[in-house]
Each structure stands twice: as structure tokens, then as C-alpha cells.
Amino acid sequence: MELLSNQILAGIATGAIYACMALALVMIYQAIGHLNFAQGEMAMFSTFMAWQMIQWGMPYWAAFVLTLMLSFIGGIVIERLLFRPLAKAPILTNLAGFLALFAIVSSVAGLIWDFTIKPFPSPFGASPFLGSQLISTHQAGMIGVILLVLAILFFFFRFTRIGLAMRAAAIQPESARLVGINTSWMIALGWGMAAAVGAVAGMLIAPVVFLEPNMMGGVLIYGFAAAVLGGLSSPLGAVVGGFLVGIFENLVGTYIPGAGNELKLPLALALIVIVLVVKPSGLFGHTVVRQV
Questions:
Q1: Which residues, 6+ apart, have CB-to-CB distance to 179 below 8 Å?
Q2: What is the mean pLDDT of each run of 10 residues along the chain (292 residues)?
Q3: CB distance 229 to 241 below 8 Å
Q4: Residue 277, domain member (yes or no)
Q5: Are 242 and 22 in contact (CB under 8 A)?
Q6: Domain that holds residue 69
Q7: For residues 105 and 131, what is the distance between their CA atoms, to the nearest angstrom?
Q8: For residues 35, 36, 40 and 41, what is the CA-based torsion angle, rounded to 10 degrees?
Q9: What secondary structure letter does DSSP report for 132?
Q10: What is the per-residue pLDDT for 292?
Q11: Which of 125, 230, 254, 258 is the most buried (most CB within 10 A)?
Q12: The dihedral sign for the CA sequence 147, 148, 150, 154
């Protein structure tokens, strides 16, 4: 029973990271109708920026906040320069743009900081949380920070004018334009917020997986699985899906003897396929019907 509790708590901690990544994916998907395959690389680049600022002597939380601001601006710039001109382009053209962004960000990060593994500091430490062996202080801190981020996002989208305008632009862009909402800039703000949320995931997972240009590859796949499981049309579903995938991953690694760790990633991919076959809209998503 203690082992089960330990794995569930560890799954909640890693699931919080997947929830952040899934939420970032869903935010961009709702804005432009495409999945951002470079979301993980953008988060990795933001984490490298935070690491560099810490190396220059900046306090961790100051580097954390400044990285979020730079990531937000960077997300807007990417949308304005690359994806706004592709707004009416075919799907394959957008896909090529995402793959190009993936390759460019990864290569630039390797060119600037090289491909060697670097330790990333944790502001919470790695000691047992409140003397318990079930969860570390870093895992507890991860959960706390991400729950705070999710609460802020909930308040923003539910109770602020800009948040409501962004929701309207994502759900009914034509109607939103008719009432005077600048849907183009709402999409850009969505990109910026998705980049900042991804940066949170990168900075919190880096002390666990260590910092290098390919660090977010597996995390992105788990984020895709979480987004598909919860529903690409549902931010709440993305968050719930992230926690479920995190718990599922840890239980698989523990209770499948000899092959658990090797099966984690294939099972995440299998989960994506199963959900798409059985319920394409996900657990919380809604089916979109288009008249032709």
C-alpha cells in the first residue's frame, strides 16, 4: 500500500508537468486549429534562458519570472512572424512550419549552449517533504507552483475581459469579430501564454531530467497523450488528462516487472491511438460538426 501511495503521489507530481504541457498545446490548438509540435522545444529554450540567468548570478525566482515574460513575448513574436502569414495556408504548410520551428529552436539551443547535460537547480531542494518518504520537497513544490498557475489561468479566462475575449475568439471567431474583438491579437496572446505555460513546465522538470536540448521530447509526447485523453477542445480536460497520464506512467513503471520503464513511452503512444479510435473528442472534449 505504501508503494502504491508513493507512485500515485509521484505520478501527480509528474502529471502536473504533463498537465502544463497539455494545456499549452490545447491553448494553441484552440487558437489556430493545429497542434504545435515545437511546444517542447520552445519550453526547452526558455529553460536554457533561465539557466543562463542563474549562471550570471540572478536569484532563481527573479530568473523564473523574467523567463516567463521573455517566453510570453517570444510566443507572440513567433505567431506574428511565422504563423500569422500561414493562417489561411493548407494544413501541410502549417505542419512544415511547426517542424521547421522545432528544428530551428533545437539547433539554436545546441549552438548557443552545446549538447552537454547540465544540472538545473531546484528552489525547493530534494529532501523528503515534511519528513515523509512518499514525496520530495521538489515534487511538492512542482505541484504547488503548477496548481497556482492553473488557478491564475482559471481566474484570467473566467473573470477578466481579455480572458473572456480570448475564449470568444477561440470558440466563435466570426461572432467575436462582429462584436469588435480583435481575434488576430487574441490568437497572438494565446501563443504568448502557451509559451509561458510551457516555460513553467520546462523549468520545473529540468531538475529531474537535467538540462539539454532534447530534454522535452518525452515530456511533449506525454503532453500530447494528456491533451488527446482529456480532449483537445477542453483546457480542463487537458489538465485532468495530464494528471491521469502521470499516475498511469508511474504505475506502469512499477507494476510491470522487468519492462515497466521501457513500456512507458510506447504505452503513452498507444493511449493516444486508443482514445482517437474509441472517443476522438477525448474525455471532456466536444464533437465539432461542420456543415459542408
A1: 168
A2: 72 87 88 85 95 95 95 93 84 88 93 91 81 76 88 90 87 84 89 92 89 89 88 85 86 66 73 83 67 48
A3: yes
A4: no
A5: yes
A6: 2-215
A7: 41
A8: 160
A9: E
A10: 47
A11: 230
A12: positive
